[in-house]
Amino acid sequence: MNINRVSRHGYFETGSPPVFVISNKHHGKVGLHSHEFFELVFIEHGIALHSHEGNTQILTTGDVFIILPGEVHSYISANNTSLYNCLFTMDALTGHEKELREIEGLCWLLDGRKKFQRVHAGLAETQELILNLEKMIWEGLNHTVGCKLKLKSLFYGLLVTYARLYSSSALSSKGTHANFKPIYDTVAYIEEHYKDDVSLEELSRLAGLSMGYLSKQFKNLLGSTPAEYARNFRMAKAAELLRIENHSVAQVAEMLGFQDISLFSRQFKQVTGITPSGFKRNK
Fold first, then answer.
1. pTM, two decimal places
2. Is CATH 2.60.40.2950 what the domain over 4-168 is classified as, yes or no?
3. What is the pLDDT of residue 179?
4. What pLDDT is stored for residue 30 in this prediction?
5. Where are the strands (E) in 121-268, listed by range?
6. What pLDDT was estimated at residue 75?
7. H or E element: which one contains 43?
């Protein structure tokens, strides 16, 4: 397996700030790679099929996640996806270890994590993130008086925003907020029954909420409707199966409960921008 190891050199020269922000647009494939530094990614617009340590996720507008040094990831397929990359080294965290360890959404930056975690930003948080990241880009380019101190302040503001999204997100593993429990339960049910065509009526009955209210809260927390989340999760599972050499497209469609291979192919392309056979050739 060919993995590109991205060095810190070129991003973090001697004497430069330990934080570097760029805006990008991905279209197509970005191969397997790892970094010598941390990377916070914010999906400003678009959808992408993403692989992290062998597991596949569907990323959509508003998603935020962090890649740790040495972790292998790639963008299997992206369709004109606009994103921000905030690269930072351990030096950016030095001196604040005690405070970081006291925040659930950030302590794993120092101690490692058990699984990939992404959070989702709503409209207000999205505007805050874009403003913060654009200011960081400006400070990094202009080198005005106090730019290193300002950049550090903006960086910690970015981390705090991420931590707050982490603590309140339905993708969080603990579900500490009682008001969100029906949404956590709905997500868990969808992920457990991803091979089935689960209806909104069934999900609302399980959650004890009206269909309209469930859809609204689901959209607020995850940025998608229950149906969209179920479809995206199912296609992420499809991508994982398609990466296995001895699984044909027809076999994967059958394993995911599709009676019609053409329907499976259409849904896969709608979500990822590429056909299952095209994905299998280019994986």
1. 0.75
2. no
3. 55
4. 85
5. none
6. 87
7. strand 38-45
CA 121, CA 221: separation in Å to the nearest integer?
8
Let me know: does 82 contact 24? Beta carbons within 8 Å.
yes
Q: Using CA atoms, how far apart are residues 167 and 173, in angstroms rounded to an integer?
A: 9
The three-state secondary structure class of 18 is: coil
The Cα 204–Cα 226 span in angstroms is 10
Backbone φ and ψ of 119, nearest 5°? -120, 170
pLDDT given at position 171: 46
In this predicted structure, what is the pLDDT of residue 109? 93
How far apart CA 131 and CA 120 sit, in angstroms, is 17
Tally of CB atoms within 10 A around 22: 14
Reported for 102-107, long-range contacts at CB under 8 A and 24+ positions apart, including other chains, are 103/163, 104/163, 104/166, 104/167, 105/162, 105/163, 105/164, 105/165, 105/166, 105/167, 106/159, 106/162, 106/163, 106/166
d(CA 217, CA 237): 25
* β 118-120/63-67 pair status: antiparallel
Name the token pair of 168. 């309140």
How far apart CA 76 and CA 84 sit, in angstroms, is: 18
Q: Structural domain boundaries of the chain? A: 4-168, 178-282
**Degrees (nearest 5) of the Cα angle 257, 263, 264?**
55
C-alpha torsion 237→239→245→246, nearest 10: 50
d(CA 73, CA 31): 8
In 10 A of CB 115, how many CB atoms? Answer: 8
- Residues of the chain short of pLDDT 70, as ranges, are 1, 79, 169-180, 283
Q: 178-282 in CATH: which number?
A: 1.10.10.60
